[in-house]
Specification:
The protein has 257 residues and is α/β, with parallel strands linked by helices. Helix content is 46%, strand content 19%. It contains nine helices and seven strands, in the order ααβαβααββαβαααββ. The longest helix has 37 residues.
């Protein structure tokens, strides 16, 4: 099954108010997209190195929580180099995955990984998670891994997730644990503050990229708070599961049936 992808969504806001509201967000989006574009050559390697290979396990857990309905369609937001899309297809061989990211160089890098049936089952599209170019109630599940931190404001993305989800569909959000919590007696916090930025600067062409990463994790809300944000956004049910002692959390929100 294929869904027509369109390029814009009328959000029903007066244009002047919308422009004023979104100006800061557009500046942020442009800066973040540019930053990710600069670290593309090192992105996958640093993911493996900085997580000690656990990032692949975390994405597998995410894929195991993806539920397919009759349509068999999954939306992978902030799809990056398509690791989540591939994990979903390994778990659900019949799934069709729309892989969307606002950084085209990331998607271009990910396309190199596609072969066989994945070429037909994973469809990369450059798009903004706050303006998803899909019709209402058109996907069974939304997945996003390590990307919700980069979306400002988050509630705009949650609103779009709910809009495109079919009744009873779920959003599966994989994200680092908040740096505001003490994990492993504070070792995690020390890793964020010192190890992660230094390793990132060593390998990356963008010295500030992994400082940004560490800062977004430090400022990210607790798992309980994010769960509450999902409920406030309109998800009927929301819960979370801590992985690797809370270094990463899987958040799940379900739309009313």
């Amino acid at each position: 099954m294929r869904i027509q992808i369109h390029t814009g969504i009328d959000v029903g806001m007066p244009s002047k108010i919308l422009a004023e509201t979104n100006h800061a967000g557009r500046s942020h989006d442009k800066a973040v997209a540019g930053m990710f574009g600069r670290i593309v050559p090192f992105y996958d390697m640093l993911n493996r190195l900085l997580s000690l290979g656990l990032d692949q396990y975390w994405r597998h857990v995410l894929a195991c929580n993806v539920h397919l309905g009759d349509a068999g369609i999954v939306l992978d937001l902030a799809a990056g180099t398509l690791d989540v899309s591939l994990a979903v297809c390994r778990r659900h061989a019949s799934a069709v995955v729309y892989a969307m990211d606002f950084c085209p160089p990331m998607l271009a890098r990910g396309k190199r990984k596609l072969g066989g049936k994945n070429v037909q089952h994973i469809l990369p599209v450059a798009a903004d998670a706050k303006h998803i170019p899909l019709p209402n109630t058109s996907v069974d599940c939304v997945a996003i891994a390590f990307g919700i931190r980069n979306i400002v404001p988050r509630d705009a993305a949650f609103t779009e997730m709910l809009r495109v989800l079919r009744p009873g569909g779920r959003a599966c959000i994989l994200e680092f644990g908040s740096g505001q919590e003490r994990i492993w007696g504070g070792l995690y916090n020390g890793y964020l503050n010192h190890v992660l930025p230094r390793v990132g600067r060593l390998f990356s062409r963008d010295p500030g990229a992994y400082d940004y990463l560490a800062e977004t994790i430090r400022q990210f809300p607790s798992a309980v708070r994010l769960e509450e944000e999902l409920r406030q956004a309109g998800f009927m049910h929301a819960w979370h599961e801590k992985l690797t002692s809370g270094i990463v959390c899987l958040h799940v929100g379900e739309k009313a049936a």
